[in-house]
Amino acid sequence: MAAAAKLMDFERALELFEPVLGFEVHVELNTNTKMFSDAPNPANEKYHAAEPNTLIAPVDLGLPGAMPTVNETAIRSSISLGLALDCSIAESSRFARKNYFYPDLGKNYQISQYDEPIAYEGSVEVELEDGTLVTVPIERAHMEEDAGKLTHMGGATGRIQGAEYSLVDYNRAGVPLVEIVTKTIFGTDHRAPEVAKAYVSTIRDIVRSLGISEARLERGNLRCDANVSLRPRVAEGEEPAPLGTRTETKNVNSMRSVERAVRHEIQRQAQILADGGKIIQETRHWHEDTGTTSPGRPKSDADDYRYFPEPDLLPVQPAAELIEELRAALPEQPVARRRRLKTEWGFTDLEYQDVRNSDLVDVVEATIAAGTTPAAARKWWTGEISRLANAQDKDAVELIAPENVAALQRLVDDGTLTDKLARQVLEGVIAGEGTPQEVVDSRGLAVVSDDGALIAAIDEALAAQPDVMAKIKDGKVQAAGAIIGAVMKAMKGQADAARVRELILERAAQ
């Protein structure tokens, strides 16, 4: 195993060097079929769990004579995304062949776009955790197809190094992609890692609001390649130093990892440069377990791919009326939406950030719309539901529908359930036992509100602890806690503790 790279202290690295960033984000579109064939699209949720090599067509395998046709829905989605990024939409764009050898791309070329992308010259505003706004310039957003997937077998790490052989799954070959390429990003300084995370998070929010992608990093629906280079600091008034050599950290699969990968590359490159070394222009692989990057392959330039126009596809020439139709349908921008929801919900910065960082904004909004308060929706989703999801290694949104969370809270609000009983009902709903009311009925979990039953339980508890009533009558009201606890235990937590306390004090006053 290679020795761990030496890292410079982050603050020291920023004293010596200016970080320069760039990002390439690939978005898998959730169309029903693939980009250039009628095979089902595994990026669509209903096809996600298909067996390997079952979602394929001759075009995806590069079979002789197979001819591509363009997916109209993918074009509409690509235009919508370009408009949401404030890009100009090309009157005419065309596909190109990007030539390289990969065993999971049967044609030995990728159909992409090169010098004539569908969208170009845009920008997106991202918000950092303290409310600072940063404008990220967009160079282009272009359409292309995805490659297949290799599974490396026989090694200890699941990577190609040390593997005995690899299996090829062509299900993903031909999945529609939009690649969003930023311009060079200057001036982020010590906030570079945070800007990286915020940018990818904003792209995720945009594509989800458009409804064009599941945008789940852990599934590869959204993939980020982070470009980082450093250039020496210069004295004020001097010409900026030339740009440094960049590295491209590939396919980082979580927001936190995007942030960590950029920080790591800044520290790694700074130490190399300070020691008199040179940065190699290459791709790098991110290792989540160690928080480090390792070399991939030398980074190719555009000329190395021998782009040329795709001869089997006509240029894409969207009508002006279509572009305006899609522009009119654009949803609220993520920054504006976040600020509006935070104000409407009355959340503090920390409360809203907790919901956002947990990727729960949409489901909390849906729960509120289903009839509960913002505070209750946040409590359930960031608390007990997230705890159960972590225990099952699932996403919280997979466990329960927002409508059932709202219904559960209504049972608490109307006194049918205590918080403790509500947690038991939640577990029953998640286990598939029905709606909250159905779980309450089948398990007999409703709070006992019959005063007669409560008084009987109180009398039994007082008989077992005869000195308690004397203490209460003597002014030591806190002594009632012992009786309340005994009643709750006897009634298996289904007594209304507040009502039990009232009845005990009424008895003491007699």
From TrEMBL:
Stretch list, region Disordered: 235-255, 281-303
Main function: Allows the formation of correctly charged Asn-tRNA(Asn) or Gln-tRNA(Gln) through the transamidation of misacylated Asp-tRNA(Asn) or Glu-tRNA(Gln) in organisms which lack either or both of asparaginyl-tRNA or glutaminyl-tRNA synthetases. The reaction takes place in the presence of glutamine and ATP through an activated phospho-Asp-tRNA(Asn) or phospho-Glu-tRNA(Gln).
UniProt similarity note: Belongs to the GatB/GatE family. GatB subfamily.
Upper classification of the organism: Bacteria, Bacillati, Actinomycetota, Actinomycetes, Micrococcales
Annotated EC: 6.3.5.-
GO molecular function: asparaginyl-tRNA synthase (glutamine-hydrolyzing) activity; ATP binding; glutaminyl-tRNA synthase (glutamine-hydrolyzing) activity; transferase activity
Subunit and interaction comment: Heterotrimer of A, B and C subunits.
HAMAP family in alphabetical order: GatB
Basic and acidic residues biased stretches: 281-290
One of the Pfam families matching this protein, by short name: GatB_Yqey
NCBIfam families attached to this UniProt entry: gatB, PRK05477.1-2, PRK05477.1-3, PRK05477.1-4
Protein name: Aspartyl/glutamyl-tRNA(Asn/Gln) amidotransferase subunit B
Origin superkingdom: Bacteria
